[in-house]
Amino acid sequence: MAYTDTALPADVADALRRIDFERKGKGLLAGFGIAALLLVALGATYASYKNVPSPADPANGKGHLVTPYGY
Questions:
Q1: Distance CA 15, CA 55 (A)
Q2: Rounded to whole angstroms, how far apart are CA atoms 50 and 67?
Q3: Exposure string (b/e) for 22-60, b if CB count within 10 Å is 16 or more?
């Protein structure tokens, strides 16, 4: 991306520092956005599954074989 600011920098090093600062800011903003979206997705998943009841006869709850389909 080209340097598009109307105020000309004093020198090339100043322009590169400014561009680097802008890129780091955008990168941090993108990172926080991705983290926020991940938290929202995990929260929605937790909220949708937190009230699912456990089975009355879990397969790993007893030492003998479980009868399939409750027969």
A1: 64
A2: 27
A3: eeeeeeeeeeeeeeeeeeeeeeeeeeeeeeeeeeeeeee
SS3 sequence, 2-69?
CCCCCCCCCCHHHHHHHHHHHHHHHHHHHHHHHHHHHHHHHHHHHHHHCCCCCCCCCCCCCCCCCCHH
- pTM of the predicted protein model: 0.56
CB-neighbour burial class of residue 7 (10 A; exposed 0-12, middle 13-18, buried 19+): exposed
- Contact status, residue 19 vs residue 3, Cβ threshold 8 Å: yes
Per-residue pLDDT reduced to its tens digit, 51-69: 877 666 666 565 566 666 7
Report the distance separating Cα 65 and Cα 56, nearest Å: 15
